[in-house]
Amino acid sequence: MSKFHESKAIYRIEYELILNVQKFRGERGWSQRVLSGKMGLAEAFVGNCESLDQDQKYNLRHIGILKKVFGFKSLDDLFPNGIPKDEQIVIRYKKVPKKKADGTPSKLMENEVMEIVVVDAETKAKGNKRE
User: Fold this and answer.
1) 74 is in which domain, residue-wise?
2) Distances (CA, A) of 36 to 50, 87, 105
3) Helix (H, G, I), strand (E, B), or coil: what is residue 10?
4) Burial of 21 (0-12, 13-18, 19+ CB in 10 A)
5) CA-based torsion, 53, 33, 26, 69: positive or negative
6) Do residues 109 and 25 touch, judged by C-beta distance below 8 A?
7) Which of 9, 11, 93, 108 could anchor a disulfide with 127, C-beta 3.0 to 4.6 Å?
8) 105 near 97, Cβ under 8 Å?
């Protein structure tokens, strides 16, 4: 039976940005490392931001860089479905093997989101306190 994991509380806008950046990267055929390089940041930066296991996430400075790298005219282009509600969420996920190009399982793992739970807290610090 798979073990479930839980992210720290993050704002929904952070999560939506991660999903959108993954989509924009995929459309361009860019790996996480390629995007990190285009942003002028450490090779592992985008991978860390996209990982639910890591605390590192995109910040305001990165949003401006992403806009430029993707060639967008407006910051709104980073959120094609509109700006998400200002709420905190916790993401429950399990680790599953990535698929190789031929469809067989890899030794590398990725996160499969099982559930997104809205957290009723005013700050991330309060949202991350476990009772």
Assistant:
1) 4-127
2) 12, 28, 26
3) strand
4) buried
5) positive
6) no
7) 9
8) yes
Please tell me the distance from the alpha carbon of residue 54 to that of residue 106, in angstroms, as a whole number.
Answer: 21
Read off the CATH number of the domain in which 90 is found: 1.10.260.40
Q: What is the pLDDT of residues 79-128, one digit of tens each?
A: 999 998 889 999 999 999 988 889 898 998 888 999 999 998 776 666 67
**DSSP-derived secondary structure letter, 60:** H
Could you write out the three-class secondary structure of 63-92?
Answer: HHHHHHHHCCCCHHHHCCCCCCCCCEEEEE
> What pTM, to 2 d.p., does this model score?
0.84
Distance CA 70, CA 87 (A): 26
